[in-house]
Here is the input.
Amino acid sequence: MNPIGRLARYVPAVLVSLCAVAGVLLAVLHSPWWWTGAAVFLAASALAVHDLVQRRHSILRNYPLLGHMRFLLERIRPELQQYYIERDYDGRPYPRSVRSVVYQRAKGIEAEEPFGTELDLYEAGSEYLTPSMAPRPVAEEAPRVRVGGPDCTQPYDMALLNVSAMSFGALSPNALLALNAGAARGGFAHDTGEGGLSDYHLRPGGDLIWEIGTGYFGCRTADGGFDPAEFADKAAHEHVKCVSLKLSQGAKPGIGGVLPGPKVTAEIARVREVPEGRTVISPPYHRVFSTPRELVQFIARMRESAGGKPTGFKLCVGSRRQVLAVCKAMLAEGVTPDFIVVDGAEGGTGAAPLEFADNLGTPLTEGLITVHNALVGTGLRDRIRIGASGKVATASDIVKRLAQGADYTNAARAMMFAVGCIQAQQCNTNTCPVGVATQDPRRVRALNIADKTDRVHRYQTSTVAAALQIMASMGVDHPSQLHPGMLRRRVTPTEVLSYAELYEWLGEGQLLAEPPGSWAEDWAAADPDRFSV
Here is the structure.
């Protein structure tokens, strides 16, 4: 952006200040009556100065005076704040703003509201969790999930809610510092995203999941390949607790990540080991493997190079046959990842073709159930933990995903809300008004790290606490007691089915013994030596 464009947001404050000066001069030199107008402009000038120096609202620091219009509109039309403009993947409207819930928890505001549910519980597609006639006491301490299979020598205890993958470049330095410092304070994990391991990930001391994508940023050879020596060196860092191989992303499966050229600063170019100022497009596929068998072999090499730390992969599910092919490769090689993160097609991104975001990939519910069933059916489920990501934001989201087969959850969009994102949808332009998704230092400075660290910590802590409260009301002492029968969906105005009835659930080792008819064809066709469609 040119210098004039950068300064345009300060024009109202400058004009008001000039008017204040002019009013004072007229009052002194011509008539005392001018003091009335001067007082108004002086007050507005004082407000502009306050906006620039305060640390609570990023939008006011970046848009002095103008930013108040947003808050004024919210007060005039509270529904702008209360209702979410999006719908979930099944087309059902959210009853209350997910963003509003996140903001309230991040700010430490009580989330209780008057009146009843805004959701039409008789609308086909509506869901609810089943309460118990014998609720349990709420757990005093949040349980953690041990991640680490038989080949892992440094297992990690994962929180129920963690920061999902968002790269340096997509997010600003201050946003990453706040996210990681919040993770350090709350004891939950922070996924680096595929953009490399930067100082902003490491400095606050939070637990990291280092994600490696198809561009191999941070462990990249000169020709764009994987550098095992550099990977081993960085994976040994004390803050790196797990390493994750990204196969695909929910919002844009089948293509690599995109970082627009204006956001590729000298610092980002150094971290990613790419040319400065040029758009970075990750390859759509990995160069280090081309078959399911080679994938699991590479996972084993990564874990060994990482000193035995938990190693896994992330994917947006496409063909069930390919998932089964990977399971067959695991059985054949005697190698399993320590975790698999299932990313739903409803997940967000900073830049992707609209057709990909809207039309490719399996939604989280179906993808999660597919992976869970495949692992159970092949007798591998007890060795592999499953993470779920894709529009996870509220306590009920966590509980629903755990009931559907996940062991833990990751949130990206909600964590962005916690650090101040207002969904301006300027992520790909480098002009984010609140300093979250930009590399413009003038905009980044508006995001106060200490304040947003508190918000990230409060949001995660209060959301997990609310999830434990929901589980207690369902008669559950531990997340492991959740099961699909506890989640119900209305399929017609007069018929309700549980997830145990809606979906087929395989028994332990069932695919190895006698695959059910609905799985038999895919199981027979799954080939550990090729990714068949």
Notes: Residues 77-96 have pLDDT under 50 and may be disordered.
